[in-house]
Amino acid sequence: MIAVGREFDAGATDEKSDSLNMEDRLPSVRLTVLHAEAYQFPSSWMFPPTAIPYSIARIVTGGTGIFIVDGEQFPVLLGDVALIPEGATLECRSTSVNFSFISIRFTTSASIAGRDFLSEHLGLQRITPNCAETDLLHHFHELESGWAASGQGRAFLLAGHLNLIIAALSARPGGANLPGKVKKNLILPSANALDPRIESIVELLAGNPRTNPNIKALCAQAHLSESALRRLFKGQMGKTISEYHRDLRMMAAARELFLTNRKVGEIAHDFGYHDANYFARLFHGVFGIPPTAYRRLTRQG
């Protein structure tokens, strides 16, 4: 970490330090399965652009389709595995009569500046082809069937298969290269590209999405004047502090909508919005659909 007050070189990285930090943190990373299900759709099926508040791993079991992740199109066919990182905007289309896949929704316990740990540091490919004849398909099937099972060991069984999927994807050609050099073509921008003062602010905001940011406290944290902080934050993040925090709030609220059956008004109140209609308008502005429609769509697939 570069000390506050020193000149920051966005291009400078300590790859050995990055690799060691990554290796140290990997044993403590916990993967939690949120849902597992097999889907089959006709040629007319479309899933509208939706920001996803969890990570997704999918293996295509039949037909062909297109996954559009953050505006980039990925044609997929039998045996392809897709990894969609938390926070990405996902759109899907079927391009054959019967398009089917097994979809696993999950979260990771570790994050860097609020970003997904697996995407940031493992550098897994969006699409890994030719997995139909490997153990990957077996683990997807076991996860899908195990989701409906019961028993005290169910959570461990699900997490075990998900860990094996991630490990297998990492070991395939073009996957992660651990514990060697950190990959540069990552799904999300590297935390090393951030000025450490802004990185500390991002971490603070990401850890407190329910609390309104105190600009004076943020200035003290970054050792910057208010004008300098606002200018540097906008330049580094592409958004103002309030816009960035609003998006964090909406993402956290979206997770609540998916994981719970709580009323929209209750969730809005938890995040500091006493007017549910105002919350719904903000949510629509970020995700393009109202909260109730978001809950329905994300639970469908």
Q: What is the top-level CATH class of the largest domain?
A: Mainly Beta
Alpha-beta content class: alpha+beta
Query: What's the CATH H-level superfamily name of the largest domain?
Result: Regulatory protein AraC
**What is the CA-atom radius of gyration, in angstroms?**
20 Å
Which segments are poorly predicted (pLDDT under 50) over 5 or more consecutive residues?
1-20, 175-192
Q: Any guess at the CATH architecture of the largest domain?
A: Sandwich
Please provide the ordered H/E string of secondary-structure elements: HEEEEEEEEEEHEHHHHHHHHH
What would you say this structure looks like, in words?
With 301 residues, the chain is of the alpha+beta class. It has two domains: 24-171, Jelly Rolls (Sandwich), CATH 2.60.120.280; 194-301, Arc Repressor Mutant, subunit A (Orthogonal Bundle), CATH 1.10.10. It contains eleven helices and eleven strands. The strands form three sheets. The chain has a five-stranded antiparallel beta sheet, covered by helices on one side. The protein has a four-stranded antiparallel beta sheet with strand order 2-7-4-5, with helices on one face. A two-stranded antiparallel ribbon has the order 9-10. A hairpin with a 2-residue loop joins strand 9 (111-112) and strand 10. Helix 3 (135-147) packs antiparallel against helix 4 (154-171) and helix 9 packs across helix 10 (276-287). The longest helix is centred in the last third of the chain and has 19 residues, at 241-259. The radius of gyration is 20 Å and the shape is globular. Mean pLDDT is 77; it is low at 1-20 and 175-192.
